[in-house]
Amino acid sequence: MKNIVVVGGGISGLSAVHALRKVLPPAVQIHLIEAASRLGGLVGTSRDPKYLFEIGPRGFRPSKNGAEIVSLVEQLSLQDECIESMGHNRFVFTNGKVEQVPGTPLEFLKWSLAPDIVKAVLHELMAPKSTASDESVYDFVARRFSPRIAEALLDPMASGIFAGNIRQLSVRSCFGLLHEKEKQHGSVVRSMLFHSTPPVPTLVDGSLKSPFVEDKSKAMSLSFRNGMQTLIDALTASISSMPNTSVALNTSLSAISMPTADKIRLQLSAPPGGPQALDADHVFSAIPARHLAPALVQSAPVAAAAMASIPFASVAIVTLGFRSNVLPHQGFGHLVPSCEKQRIIGVIYDSCSFPQQQTDDVTRLSVFVGGENHKDVAALSLAQIEAIALEEVRAHLGVSATPEYVASSWYDRAIPQYPVGFHALLDTIEADVAGALPRLTLLGNSFYGVGIADAVHRSTAAAHAFAKTLV
Length: 471
Ligand SMILES: C=CC1=C(C)c2cc3[nH]c(cc4nc(cc5[nH]c(cc1n2)c(C)c5CCC(=O)O)C(CCC(=O)O)=C4C)c(C)c3C=C
Description:
The chain is of the alpha/beta class. Among the domains are: 3-38 and 62-81 and 224-310 and 418-469, FAD/NAD(P)-binding domain (3-Layer(bba) Sandwich), CATH 3.50.50; 108-194, protoporphyrinogen ix oxidase, domain 3. The protein is built from 17 helices and 19 strands. It has helices spanning 11-23, 67-75, 105-110, 114-126, 137-144, 147-162, 171-174, 176-185, 188-194, 211-216, 229-240, 289-292, 301-308, 350-353, 382-397, 422-436, 452-470, and strands at residues 3-7, 29-33, 45-47, 52-54, 82-84, 90-94, 97-100, 222-224, 245-248, 252-260, 263-269, 277-280, 282-285, 312-322, 333-335, 346-348, 363-370, 405-416, 440-442. The strands form 5 sheets. Strands 7-6-15-16-17-14-18 form a 7-stranded mixed beta sheet, with helices on both faces. β6 (90-94) and β7 form a beta hairpin. α1 (11-23) packs parallel to α11 (229-240) and α5 (137-144) runs antiparallel to α6 (147-162). The radius of gyration is 23 Å and the shape is globular. The protein binds ligand L6N33NVT. The ligand C=CC1=C(C)c2cc3[nH]c(cc4nc(cc5[nH]c(cc1n2)c(C)c5CCC(=O)O)C(CCC(=O)O)=C4C)c(C)c3C=C binds next to α6, β15, β16 and α17. The ligand C=CC1=C(C)c2cc3[nH]c(cc4nc(cc5[nH]c(cc1n2)c(C)c5CCC(=O)O)C(CCC(=O)O)=C4C)c(C)c3C=C binds at residues 59-61, 90, 160-161, 163, 220-221, 315, 332-335, 345-348, 368, 371, 415, 450-451, 453-454.
């Protein structure tokens, strides 16, 4: 009887178990190992009676490879719980004030960045194609568009996905579409105007996307009426009811080896009575690269060293609850370019984005502090970070009310960064793992995209690819 182990009970590991169970024969044993005392990793919800706040991601993108997570929502019968973001407007802090990103041509004409954008687009159409295999997001955008566009638009976008620094992040690995469009058509703008890519009608298993998946793909962001914890609870309940599927909490990985060609062995650190070692036919690792690296030092040293070199950004999230509507405008939130020299990365207006998550007309805000452009924040106390968050909210949004709910958390090395040349680093990692530990498959946001949609897509695709090797 085959024995499969999934290491890591975050969204990547949970969705991998779910997908594997769907494609493998019921007699195959699947074990999920998680180091913490709960499943879900950074995905979870804190539910104060009045103020719902997410621990980590506020929602997920349903478009592009997001079809797999939307399909997962449907498989778990969560359609009625699933809600669409109502925060259609987005804002960027520009020249000392919060400005709306235009949604119509008329709004565009009134935008302070419009003249810079028009000039940059004309420049882009003529800019020569680069032969470099990769470059930083800043270098790419400054070269093809303009330094001003890189600093005013790409910098906040990179903050709002990676909490990262555009002078270090790889354009190829972080904004792959820009890189591909230049390589294929010589110009990003020309490619967008004349070579749009039609949407893929199928899921990774080849089946047609359902009407629910098609319908939800148009939303900017999705979440759940009772928060993202809904997805974790439903996955946990589904996995617990599956035959030949076990979950071990408080159990961490110490080492992976292949004592023989047909077995892969895990050394574990578990509570008394728990498994100290497991032999398996295949292992899926869904833990961060910096946790997996020490377990591979003996068996795949090249991959281990490459994994250990992947940087991670740390952020603080300060959540503020006000008893009435205190916002001067409605939208998803605002992002702050680092050239504006403010002390926060941005604010998500949770109560505007997902008003379905509350009954009263309260204001819920999430203020993001830290990241690669504000590393000094790591030395501050949470009380100091909360004070900064509140001061910036007052200054940016003109809020004078005192919040009745304040909470904050520090997420140490939470967000993987893909620096210039990351594609080559990943090739090195995959080649060493394929050679030294062919019974190990890598999953998770350290390697395959930082969004939840990317995580579920990778896990589902890997489960299907594995099932094909068995027939
Ligand atoms: C407009 C305000 C936003 C702030 C402030 C913000 C902070 C922030 N976000 C991440 C990580 C991710 N954000 C992602 C998507 C995303 N973020 C915003 C806006 C803000 N983010 C929008 C409108 C979207 C798209 C809709 C959605 O997915 O919900 C993602 C997913 C990216 C993807 O899958 O393509 C991530 C990851 C961090 C780390 C952060 C502050 C530190």
